[in-house]
Specification:
Helices cover 18% and strands 36% of the residues. It contains seven helices and 18 strands.
């Protein structure tokens, strides 16, 4: 089951059929241990058609958090970008440590969705997208499903000093989620592929891919650490790290198009401003 947040209500996609639910709030889904079963109980009207135009970001009262250095490629890239500041060992130690790196990423008003524009920082000269699998988590710490995320990052700011991470990561329109949420109990298989494509003026600028099997940490492990001494009354999202890193000479520009695809979930497309 996939669900989408729209101005008219919650659209449910199931077996190529679409239904509209208007009687419950988006936040109420995150109070459930089984959001799919909860939606099945609601009154709904059938929709003859549905497209991904004019979606709302699939977030209301939730927080967005992120995990870092969960892929070997991310570890290597972070060590490279921080070499001038002498911070290489931080990322190597995080990759090998029992405790993962977790950090706050965004609130609803800082988040966009499919078809909307992400932003680059005006005070950065090295901006990249980070394509990631996102966990959809209930208020009780249960993984309800999955979506696609773009963790926009200023690599020059983070590389200058690890303490600048919040400025490199957290700003208006720094996060994109969507297009919708895939609700399912079963974990996604390790063979699930994440693909990134960046186009500039209609031409391919960069493409890359990775698989979930390349992650060093499990989703359940990341959630367990996130919920230590922390509460999320309206649920949360957790970006699980990136294994695709564009080359050091590439920085996003106004008008670039970012496409992130994950098997079984869909494709998240954003332009850059």
């Amino acid at each position: 089951m996939k669900i989408y947040r729209t101005v008219n209500g919650i659209v449910v996609e199931q077996n190529t059929n679409y239904r509209l639910i208007t009687t419950i709030s988006w936040d109420s889904l995150f109070q459930q241990d089984d959001a799919g079963a909860y939606l099945e109980k609601q009154d709904a009207q059938p929709l003859d058609s549905f497209n991904l135009n004019h979606l709302l970001p699939p977030i209301d009262g939730q927080e967005v958090w992120a995990a870092g250095v969960t892929y070997w490629r991310s570890r290597t890239a972070r060590m490279e970008e921080s070499s001038q500041a002498g911070g290489q060992s931080f990322y190597d130690r995080v990759y090998e440590a029992e405790r993962p790196e977790l950090f706050f990423k965004a609130t609803g008003h800082r988040t966009v969705t499919h078809g909307q524009a992400v932003a680059v920082r005006r005070d950065s000269s090295w901006m990249v997208p980070e394509p990631e699998l996102v966990l959809v988590i209930s208020s009780r710490g249960r993984i309800l499903g999955y979506t696609i995320g773009n963790d926009m990052s200023a690599r020059d700011i983070e590389g200058a000093n690890p303490l600048y991470l919040p400025q490199a990561k957290v700003y208006d329109r720094s996060c994109s989620l969507g297009p919708g949420l895939l609700l399912q109990d079963e974990p996604l298989p390790g063979s699930t592929e994440i693909r990134l494509l960046i186009r500039r003026q209609g031409q391919e600028l960069f493409s890359g891919s990775t698989r979930l099997s390349e992650m060093r940490r499990t989703p359940q492990e990341l959630v367990q650490y996130l919920f230590r001494q922390n509460s999320f009354p309206r649920g949360c999202f957790l970006l699980t790290g990136t294994g695709i890193v564009p080359p050091s000479g590439l920085s996003l520009r106004n008008g670039d198009e970012i496409s992130i695809s994950i098997d079984s979930i869909g494709t998240l497309i954003n332009t850059v401003e």
